[in-house]
Amino acid sequence: QIQGMPYGNCLLLSDGPVNNSTGIPFFYVTPKDNTVADLLKNPVASLTLPEADGNFCRKNVIDPEDPRCARLTLAGQMVMVPPEEVEFAKQAMFSRHPVVRKWPRSYEWFFMKMNIEHIWLQSWYGEASAIAVEE
After folding, report:
1. pLDDT per residue over 18-42, tens digit each?
2. Predicted pLDDT at 53
3. Which Pfam family, giving just one, matches this sequence (predicted)?
4. pTM of the predicted model, to two decimals?
5. Do 96 and 17 meet the contact criterion of CB atoms below 8 Å apart?
6. Rounded distance, CA 109 to CA 127, Å?
7. pLDDT of the residue at 15
């Protein structure tokens, strides 16, 4: 009924092991998830990260979804992690989310990552600022 429409979902992500963040979002996913099935057909996606851990919002006891708290939106293509990067993706995911090691193997888990093409930062009320991907 919603074929072709955008659909949101919560997926575990990691941008690298705790002491080696890369800024590239890695995901541990299953093809049995409708979101992943959609991404395999059309890999265009966006990801918004709230400033949940930022000092301003915590210090001032402001809800992380309040516009005064920064949020970063990444947009790009979701791709399967190539074989030469799987070990790094595994370290990235399992070091930050150890529970995934216990997820049922019958779900055919695999790694995807986002090839970031656009970045926007909203740090106050109003419009977002574009940030160069290289930054």
Report:
1. 889 999 999 999 999 988 988 999 9
2. 63
3. CREG_beta-barrel
4. 0.85
5. yes
6. 37
7. 94
Per CATH, is 13-131 categorized as 2.30.110.10? Answer: yes
- Looking from the CA of 18 toward its CB, the CA atoms found within 13 Å total 5
Q: Which two tokens stand for residue 43?
A: 């890999």
| Among 120, 97, 105, 112, CA closest to 28 | 112
Burial 86-105 (b: 16+ CB within 10 A, else e): eebbbbbbeebeeeeeeeee
CA distance linking residue 29 with residue 40, whole number of Å: 11
Residue 44 is encoded by which pair of tokens? 């265009």
Sign of CA dihedral 86, 121, 53, 55: positive
| Predicted local confidence at residue 130, as pLDDT | 93
pLDDT lower than 50: segments of the chain:
none
Can you read off the two tokens belonging to residue 26?
């890695």
**Tokens representing residue 121 in the block:** 């930062």
